UniProtKB/TrEMBL annotation, chain A:
Organism: Actinacidiphila alni
Subunit structure of this chain's protein: The complex is composed of two ATP-binding proteins (LsrA), two transmembrane proteins (LsrC and LsrD) and a solute-binding protein (LsrB).
Protein name: Autoinducer 2 import system permease protein LsrC
Keywords of the record: Cell inner membrane, Cell membrane, Membrane, Transmembrane, Transmembrane helix, Transport
A single MF term (Gene Ontology): transmembrane transporter activity
InterPro entries (alphabetical): ABC_transp_permease
Pfam family, one: BPD_transp_2
Transmembrane segments: 31-48, 60-79, 109-130, 137-157, 177-199, 229-249, 261-280, 287-311, 317-337
From TrEMBL, chain B:
UniProt keyword Signal present: yes
PROSITE patterns reported in the protein's UniProt record: PROKAR_LIPOPROTEIN
Limits of the Periplasmic binding protein domain: 65-323
Subcellular location: Cell envelope
Name of the protein described by the UniProt record: Rhamnose transport system substrate-binding protein
Cellular component terms per the entry's GO annotation: outer membrane-bounded periplasmic space
Taxonomic lineage: Bacteria, Bacillati, Actinomycetota, Actinomycetes, Kitasatosporales
Renumbered residue ranges of the record's region Disordered: 31-55
One Pfam family per UniProt: Peripla_BP_4
One annotated GO biological process: rhamnose transmembrane transport
Organism field: Actinacidiphila alni
Signal peptide residues on this chain, from the entry's feature table: 1-27
Amino acid sequence: MTMTAKPASAAPPEAASTSGFLDRVLKVRELAILVVLVLMLLATQLDNHAFLSEQGIKDLLLNATILVLVAVGQATVVITRNVDLSVGSTMGITAFAAGEFLRGGGNPLVGVLIAIALGIGFGVVNGLLVSLGQVPALVVTLGTLYIIRGLDSIWFGSKQITAADLPSGFADFGHNGFGAVPYLALLTAVVLIVAAYYLRSYRSGRDLYALGSSPEAARLAGVPVRKRILTAYIVCGALAGLAGALYLARFGNVDSGTGNGYELTVVSAVVVGGVAFTGGSGSVYGAALGALLLTSINSVLPSIGVSSVWVQAIDGILLLLAIAVDRVVALRVAAVLRKRAAQTRSAIHHA
Amino acid sequence: MSYRTAPARRAAAAVAVVAAVAIGATACGGTTKKSTDSDSTKSGSGSSAAASANPSAPIKKGLTIAYLPKQVNNPYFTISDNGGKKAVEALGEKYKEVGTSSGTDTAGQVSYVNTLTQQQASAIAVSAQDPGALCTALNQARKNGVKVVTYDSDTNTNCRDAFVSQASAEDLGRTEVQLMAKQIGNKGQIAILSAAQTATNQNTWIDFMKDELKKPEYKDIQLVKVAYGNDDAQASFQQTQGLLQQYPNLKGIISPTTVGIKAAAQYLSGSKYKGKVQLTGLGTPNDMRAYVTNGTVQSFELWDPAKLGALAGYTAVALASGQITGAPGETFTAGDMGSYTIGKDSTVVLGKPTVFDKSNIDQYHF
């Protein structure tokens, strides 16, 4: 944005105010999810006083952690106008790999690192296929979804990891914490903050947005397209791997079907969180809030005694609502930008 | 969901087609004498069986018993089919297992049935993904002299020769209530955490639980809710949390699904409810070992899937040997498992479920 030389004298204040406006819109977008979430939780609390007890808050946070992690990774990819559908399979296979290692008496920390490394490996494969192959990410990652699930079945067959195979400290890590704040939630928060800071403040992070806004323009502006896309997929794979290890700690049971169908939940969370599927906009905070909102709904309904058959319908309505809001916001932002551009042009002419 | 299974189904269909072509080719290449021989023996045994069973008929050798579980690589069916393998091979017969890698790929199951018919398997032991969808293919198989035994999950009664039931629905439903009642001292609120709302097995068991609860000795037990965790770990977690929040005085949860009970147990073992809220239902010893050891769960029950698979194998061999035809009242010997009688609707019941607790869980490994 600040690279063009000619209008340098006039552009900086304009650019700053435009991005300030955009920032505000995006913040409002995330704020809206937060407001919906808080209202929903408070209303549930009024109906059922046990809902926001210490155990209740802990459960809400724990339920969200795994989805938040994968959604943060997915958001990083979606921002570049790509998608990674293989996250569910990656999560399943990494959970099993970590479990298999721990069953053999391995160190839990090494187990987690193995899961992350395996996730990175799949991220590299996805990233290379998408960036070098010039094939739509949807198709490529649909392919790797099946391939990884197939590897999972071949490698593990009908074996399963059960709670009895895991060291007790590892399972405790999955549900203990400081009061109402579980360790897993703290870990997830750290990951979230780091990812958000990177995307916001690093040049390579901003490049991801540029890529998503207009791949062609980004390429012409000198953004190393392949490298950046690869990075996004590696982040996504690593987080899916970490999520796999945490899944193992939290649920204590893994078989070759673990994570089946999870990619759709993740994509829903990302979209509800305001990360546009057309790329170039949204934030990982939004994606995390989207994930928190979706998992919280699944906790709210049983807690107020509503049948679980409503869960999916409500998720779907939220999804459509989120897309509608995004569309309206996008139209209004475009209108504002056009107006400003016209003003700038006339200002230059008059000068 | 559907877009994911489609390619798998296509792949399965392709495999089936290739297999069918290959079999067709070998049949053409083989001597006609051999095939007429086998045809005549088959039709011979078929007609005699149709007329009447001969309980003292010797067990035929060289039979091929094919297992078609709901899903291959599913731990439960692997144990079950391995039990079947042991039984079948002990009798000197040939065992094989085929099946789909998805538990909801009905078209895949149909094409496996067709392939097995073309391969002239002596008998198929199948766990049906759908009670009706396999009927045409299975009846085609039976017309060609293949005996059909269903196990674990039945088809409609007119599409198979016999059904080997894991335990009667009535026994399962009633014994789960009895276990729970013992754990909570016949008093307090209880809830049920089931699989999907449409799961046939679970719904039948739940009906018997409700019936058992009507007995006077359980008058102080109230069933407050039936929740559905859809056999998904996260959903079962959240449904369990919901039950505990909605009913603070809840004394116990019955989960008649192996996925539900282990998820509920994992949640309880890491929450403040551990040891205060009782949990029982159907689970496997391997899944539940950690929770019985750490005091979250006192006892639970299940049939032995290895014995279920073995009984399916013995039944298939007895059918293929002409010892039984599947008519109610016939008896046959199931190896070292003793003698079994065919009941109503051609059903053979394995027996009462086994209860697992701290004292015996270490003897079981499945």
